[in-house]
Amino acid sequence: MIAACAMAALLASCGGTGETEKKVESEETVEHVEAKPVVASYAVNTAETTLGWKGSKSPEDAHNGGIAVSGGTIEIADNVITGGSFTIDMASITCKDLEGTEYAEKLVGHLMNQDFFLVDSFATSSFEITAVSDSNVTGNLIVLGVGKEVSFPVAVSVSEDKVEAKGTFGIDFTGFGVAGLGSTEEAHEHEEGEDHEEEETISPIIEFDLNLVANKK
Questions:
Q1: Per-residue pLDDT tens digits for 74-114
Q2: CA distances from 189 to 38, 183, 186, 201 (A)
Q3: What domains lie within the chain, and their CATH numbers?
Q4: How far are the Cα atoms of 16, 17, 62, 72, 162 from residue 207, in angstroms, in the given order?
């Protein structure tokens, strides 16, 4: 009888120790997992989005117009841009400063032919965001089938149902293969007043005025 009681006490003692060890082991394996920010996707509102352009040989010899952003999405987390991609309809180029004159049609036709954007072969251009730092957006711009990294500033406003991104900036098209544009080197030489026997070239830096509107999907 005494031996049986002693055996029962021993088993009970061993059982209690096992449960304690399991509890400690369980507590040790619990890891703290930080909640990831929720990413919301917004579709570009093509009816409300505008993209203006300005190209020039000099401040006194410039033209301006618009071009359509035909689609795209923008991703937002904690009111900050985290990604996005956009398509630009190259056949939608317009000229505003010559609007209502025969020269507007001629200029648009020139911009669409082989001297500039060869729209028959490259109907769209695109931009994909790769990084965002403060108010600067960096991404891969594809024009004439050539991709280059570009950066520009935007001011972003985020609400529950809508995102607005606005910015005025210049993009250097040197290296995209746009035949009608000069190079950055030529533009600098012109600024420094160097003489050229050839006809003055168009600056490779095209200025843009962006007002992008996107609605939550």
A1: 999 998 999 999 999 999 999 999 999 999 999 999 999 99
A2: 49, 10, 5, 11
A3: 40-194+201-216 (2.40.128.110)
A4: 77, 75, 11, 21, 26
